[in-house]
UniProtKB/TrEMBL annotation:
Coiled coil: none annotated. The lineage of its organism: Eukaryota, Viridiplantae, Streptophyta, Embryophyta, Tracheophyta. It comes from the Eukaryota. It holds the Pfam family Abhydrolase_6. Belongs to the AB hydrolase superfamily. This is AB hydrolase-1 domain-containing protein. Residues 18-256 form the AB hydrolase-1 domain. Residues 273-286 have a biased composition (Acidic residues). Residues 270-292 are annotated as: Disordered.
Amino acid sequence: MRWYANVREVGGGNEATVVLAHGYGSNQGLWDKLLPALSQRNRVILFDWDFTGGGGSEQLLDQGRYTFGRFADDLIALLDDKGVRGAVLVGHSMSAMAGCIASVRRPDLFSHLVLLCASPRYINSAEDGYVGGFETAGIDAMLDAMSSDFVSWVKGFVPNAVGDPVSVPPVEESFLAMHPAVALELARMIFLGDQREALAAVAAPCTIVQVERDIAAPPSVAEYMMHRLTTGAAAAADMVIIDSVGHFPQLVAPQQLLTVLEGVLRCHGGGGDGEEEEVAEAEADGGIDITA
């Protein structure tokens, strides 16, 4: 049984294959603002993880069913099924870490990883100075709230996570489409997990894209990831901070995100050295900040 469904290809360009992997509570529809530009010159592959639309409810109580390793394996299976090699993966939130693990297991599948609003660990770790943004008690309280009244939790959590009232409805709709018990099991996997060790083994070039005011994954997490990647096996790593709000820049700041992605694709999709031009233009507009 595979955990991906509704695979879709958009565009027929041959500059690069771009795989858009959505995060927790999302679905592939949240990429729609990026598709017209990305699909002009690239082959774009989208899909839904099985927890969207109530998926997974039949098997939901296989304890330990959801793991980052299994998501990574299914991402590998998807790329193999589509005959993809050397893809540019844009992994949002939990899919960023699944992509990191997949790239270690099958480096031939990925030419570049864009780690969008990623976090390898959400809970602070005082013993090693790690700032993930949350204390254990806060995560436990969140999981309890999900368990007792999932709908009320979604209606309180999503506006804070999105940060932009106009963009709340599609995210709220996608969260509410999840089976509550599946959503809870998956949240335990994500918010109680620790994937920090996976970063050191990533050899693919990476671009970490973070939002300045993201309550779920603060810039301190991006800085930590940058350090772990550049002192590990990564061929190269950049960090881009988008001057915006929330955990869903594909909805809230799509043009700023497109500027970053187009720069990555110019560099890693056979388009020459246009990445520097794109970054310079964005910095001039005050939209992003990049640290190499």
